Amino acid sequence: MPSALTLPFLRYHIPISSPFSLPRCSSTTTAAVSQGDSTLRKTMDRLAGNAHLMIVSDLDHTMVDHHDPENLSLLRFNALWEANYRNNSLLVFSTGRSPTLYKELRKEKPMINPDITILSVGTEITYGNSMVPDDGWVEFLNQKWDRNIVSEETRKFTELTLQSETEQRPHKVSFYVQKDKAQDIMKSLSVSLKERGLDVKIIYSGGMDLDILPQGAGKGQALAYLHKRFKAEGKLPKNTLVCGDSGNDAELFTIPDVHGVMVSNAQEELLQWYSANAKDNRKIIHATERCAAGIIQAIGHFNLGPSTSPRDVMDLSDSKMDKFDPAYEVVKFYLFYERWRRAEIENSDRYLANLKAVCCKSGKFVHPSGIEQLLHDCVSSLRTCYGDKQGKQFRVWVDQVLIEQIGSDSWLAKFKKWEQSGEERLADYKVEFVEDRWFKFSWDPKDKASLRSL
Ligand code: GLC
Ligand code: MG
Predict the structure, then answer these.
(1) Which of 163, 177, 186 should be mutated for ligand 1, with most atoms under 8 A from CB?
(2) Which protein residue's CA is at the shortest distance from atom 12 of ligand 1?
(3) Is the pTM here over 0.85, yes or no?
(4) Which end of the chain, N or C, is less packed with Cβ atoms under 10 Å?
């Protein structure tokens, strides 16, 4: 494997300057930094202790399968995460996409919200749903970086085609280049940019994309930075699983102590990197399953926690859990709702009666606007919509199912409900955010009611 490609991955180092000693910034930067910092703090504080699992996953062809029009593996992952991990773990998306293309993907695919989003090949780190940037990271990346010089030097290579404007970012210059030309160009470019005084990292991905970044950037470096920040707070996740399919993901697998999964459909350049650099590392597997199904497979393989998605459980009433888990109940409820409307379960009053039997008569859905609806009424109204989405592209998923214990045997579940609906044609659908919802639950161990609302 030519050194131009392997070099950046081998030269992994954790920055020891500004990002970890943020206060020495100018007053404007300090204000911005503290906004990023406070959002990170909220993320950390949401968990009672150290995260049980931190998943750091690439999106295109890893979490998201562009060859699966039904998005089934992504939906399976979502249900698994919300039912079992959301309340004790951290989800990090790490993508090559810019914020613009990332937001487009979110409109197209049934995705849940991550805690942290790393964009533009590890050059932008953002926290929370509002994607507050980590300015300490930005400042660190300014070292030995000048994108004007990169533009000047790359203009000399006619084989390089500039990617769209949205993908040109403050610390990332991106091109398309043919596979057979890539290695030579990368070698010449690293020489010429070095001569101009820059310290850059050149990464080739997907057999077509060439990114030029500051040496300290990249998906791996961004993860190392996050680990360091969590460690500084005594909140280093107990386990980290990194997931990827292409060249820009290779660095993720070099971070100490992480488990890693290359999904079955991984690109040649990542598999070659693995054979040359990491094939004796037993913490890295090449899954036999594609995309998100490969991630689920890795969770099981490394024993990182539950690995059966509620979507793979056909009889939802047959819960084997001996402990009441409100998050699991919310996921199950909406899976039932989806299957009912898609007519994937029998049209039987028995199901509705069962649902009612486990809800208190006074049970309520509470909308954050204050509007309330009796659970029994909601269940009754299901009778009229049985099968109305049969044969259609209709999916429901819940997102950020956060549980708060409000009494010795009662909980408040807050979550977002999403729907994807469309007509018979598979590609013709839209992803819609439907609403924030709250459920109030109580748990009566005597009759093992599974969905009981206050
Ligand atoms: C994404 C980005 C693109 C980048 C590629 C590989 O597709 O949009 O700019 O080159 O990832 O990192
Ligand atoms: Mg990818």
Answers:
(1) 163
(2) 96
(3) yes
(4) N
